[in-house]
Amino acid sequence: MRKINLFIFLLVAVLVFSGCSKKQPTALDNSGSTNGTIGEGIVKESESESDGEISLTDLFLPDGSKAHYLGEGNEFAELDVEVARPFENYVVVHENNGGSLVRHIYKIEPDKISILDEQTVELVKDFPTLAELDAMDPTGVYLKKPIKKGTTFDTWTIVEIDTTVDTPYKKFDHAFVIEMKTDDFVNRKYFVEGFGEVKRESIMQTDDGEFVVTSTLKTVDK
After folding, report:
1. Are 106 and 78 in contact (CB under 8 A)?
2. Model pTM?
């Protein structure tokens, strides 16, 4: 029980301190089965960069988007996410897990997405000025090029590309997966161009079997 409680604590930290540009999306062949009706506010995947690789800008939902993630395995796995792009190359993501509102600030650079800040806040519209953002030093790396199997950054590794992932929102056919692994547990994030994170998964091996917690994209509204 103590081991599971420690896992939940670490999991909540990963779920809380993780994330979802303002580039107008265009159609991408990431077809799959869609659950429910898609309205005008639903985002489509966007095209890749001219060099054939996914644009880092397209690994977030568009400016002003809101998304809901179905949570399973833990009460804090259910998420409401709001995405803002207040200034060029900066993305601010607010995540509400029912227990806290966490603000993530990212900077999109030529070869990586840097983490500038992650902290609990009181208001969704609470984010720094451009001067304050420019003065921030990165605290970590959220994603790094090239988007191919084996790329590593911080404690994460890209372990799968061009894979399929099912979500309550739809089935995506061209996702890639990053993984953080220790002796006791595995954390994974599933990314799709034009959407960013569509699923988070944490698995711990216990004497009673696997203890699994997931957050999976259910709805998107921009």
Report:
1. no
2. 0.78
pLDDT in tens, 109-162: 999 999 999 999 998 887 899 999 999 999 999 999 999 999 999 999 999 999
CATH for 2-221 is 2.40.360
**Strand-strand pairing, 196-206 and 209-221:** antiparallel
Burial class (CB in 10 A: 0-12, 13-18, 19+), 63: middle
125, exposed or middle or buried, with CB in 10 Å at 0-12, 13-18, 19+?
A: exposed
Domain segments of the chain as ranges: 2-221
Q: Which residues contact 133 (CB under 8 A, 6 or more apart)?
A: 87, 90, 105, 107, 116
What average pLDDT does the chain have? Answer: 82
